[in-house]
Design brief:
Two copies of one chain form a homodimer. Chain A is α/β, with parallel strands linked by helices. The first copy, chain A, has ten helices and 13 strands. Chain A folds into two domains: 125 residues, Nucleotidyltransferase, domain 5 (2-Layer Sandwich); 161 residues, Nucleotidyltransferase, domain 5 (2-Layer Sandwich). In chain A, the strands form three sheets. Chain A has a five-stranded mixed sheet, with helices on both faces. A five-stranded mixed sheet of chain A has the order 11-10-9-12-13, with helices on both faces. In chain A, strands 5-6-7 form a three-stranded antiparallel sheet. In chain A, strand 1 and strand 2 form a beta hairpin. The longest helix of chain A has 25 residues. The model of chain A has no long low-confidence stretch (mean pLDDT 96).
Chain lengths: 309, 309
């Protein structure tokens, strides 16, 4: 095994994580902290203090996954859930810190999809949709064995496929998007409106999944509702893209068969073209570290996963 | 200008067309005939008699667009609208006829999309969806300046994006697909059921577009119905793929503003992510010869448009 190492960074609204990843995709060293609610420079100092704990020998590059939106590939980030960073020049700051090393950054869901393709559930397949279902519904696409960036680095937004044209308004300004139905908070809110834990101020999608597993009828119906919306969107994506594998991760995917069974039924109901029948819809494999593994792939697998400067 | 020339073939249910295409994408020589309703060898002889009329000097390759489905890239074709060919080894036959030359074949809608990217409405853009709306609704994808084939050569099937989950059954076996609503014959049948030309045995989408242009209310409503379904599907594709250009061709696209105005309204209603706002949805430019131009691009533009053996 080579001595080369990549420094990987995962910036999210809940946590900041950094690690050293080896060429096989193993996370050797790992540090994390809650994302503090502070101003831009305070947040940068928090990230730097995490980075200070990592060894810097044998580094060949820095890979980053960060919550969107961002200017890509220039890497000025404005993560929806991190109000302190608006147009923050994350890529430039990291280039200053790690002089001479390539620094590469992409949206977090894209990074997770790359991780699953490189070392997870999509390994060895040429056409993969990686999805993250949690407080939002995001994704990334590897087609023809190469990451698809789109015109502005935004390819993969499966959360904004329209699954119910006359349906609920979406935060994006549209209507009936997958995300408006299937993101965790929307699903919990729907169940509360139907009478589930109606007395609580806040009930989470995690509570919902737990209650569904115990057979609570509204919770079960909510998971079915999410599964159906996901099945429609994945059928559309499969017909449009002729995929091999759809790998589904994120907190909501922990719900297991409560989610995957209705998802699969609806998917098979709509994905009827002959070529769509061989697609495998599977849980993601990498879990919490998918973002770090994917970020490392922007360096180790640059021929497939990095098409920018 | 180089002396190189490509022989291009366009096999459809209505017509067979062949031509010589120069490196600039101009069709120099063009021959066509109606597709005869004969057996496999009879059809092959018809194609050969067309090919016999073409000059063969300076040929560097043969490109083919053919109605699907087909085994790809091996090129055993079973065009839905040509019952005489089922598993017909078109690529192999052409290789025997044009010994030593590369012969490359793809689905007809993919070929048209490639033509529009190479020399038509998508010229100079890196992320293009090309669509053909006629008796079916097909398409092809160029992403990151490269043709997307999918796992089995079937990427681009935008006609089977789900736009109305509880809607009409589709020939594919699914429900609520774009094609089930917006393909010409379905649209004409819908209008007849609503009372338009109800006394006629058969009325065509061409009649429908003409009547819509004259202000017939049911015909206008039919075009709006198609436009809305198209707008939803294109919004979903744009969000998923972060496109630059959507180029729309095929007979139905001749309807002009009667179709494009409701299409654009619905598209803008649903495509609300900031990155989706710069997309241009435009009529295709190449018309009847798009298939020949695209077929030639499999040879001239092999680095971008041909990823197989």
């Amino acid at each position: 095994m080579s001595d080369e190492r990549v420094l990987a960074i995962d910036v999210g609204g809940t946590k900041l994580a950094v690690g050293i990843v080896d060429p096989g995709g193993r996370v050797e060293t790992y540090e994390r902290t809650e994302t503090p609610k502070v101003d831009a420079e305070g947040l940068w100092r928090t990230l730097e203090s995490l980075l200070d704990k990592l060894p810097e020998s044998d580094l060949i590059g820095v890979g980053v996954g960060c919550g969107g939106p961002m200017e890509w590939p220039s890497g000025e980030v404005s993560p929806l859930n991190i109000p302190g960073w608006r147009g923050f020049p994350l890529r430039e700051r990291l280039r200053e810190r790690y002089k001479g090393l390539p620094v590469r950054i992409h949206n977090d869901a894209v990074t997770v999809a790359v991780g699953e393709h490189w070392r997870g559930a999509g390994r060895g397949s040429r056409n993969v949709l990686g999805m993250v279902i949690s407080t939002g519904v995001g994704g990334g696409l590897i087609l023809g064995d190469r990451l698809i960036d789109g015109a502005s680095g935004n390819a993969g937004h499966i959360g904004h496929i329209v699954v119910d044209p006359g349906g609920m308004p979406c935060k994006c300004g549209g209507r009936g998007c997958l995300e408006a139905i299937a993101r965790g908070p929307a699903l919990a809110a729907w169940a509360q409106a139907e009478g589930w834990r109606a007395e609580q101020m806040i009930a989470t999608a995690k509570d919902l999944a737990a209650d569904a597993a115990r057979g609570h009828p509204i919770a079960v119906a909510a998971m079915r509702r999410a599964g159906r919306a996901l099945g429609i969107a994945i059928a559309s994506a499969t017909h449009l893209l002729d995929l091999d594998v759809v790998a589904i991760g994120g907190g909501m995917s922990q719900a297991g068969p409560m989610l995957f069974t209705p998802l699969d039924e609806t998917f098979r109901h709509h994905a009827r073209m002959e070529f769509a029948r061989h697609v495998r819809v599977v849980p993601a494999e990498l879990g919490q570290t998918a973002g770090l593994v994917g970020a490392a792939a922007f360096i180790y697998g640059a021929d497939r996963y990095w098409n920018a400067d």
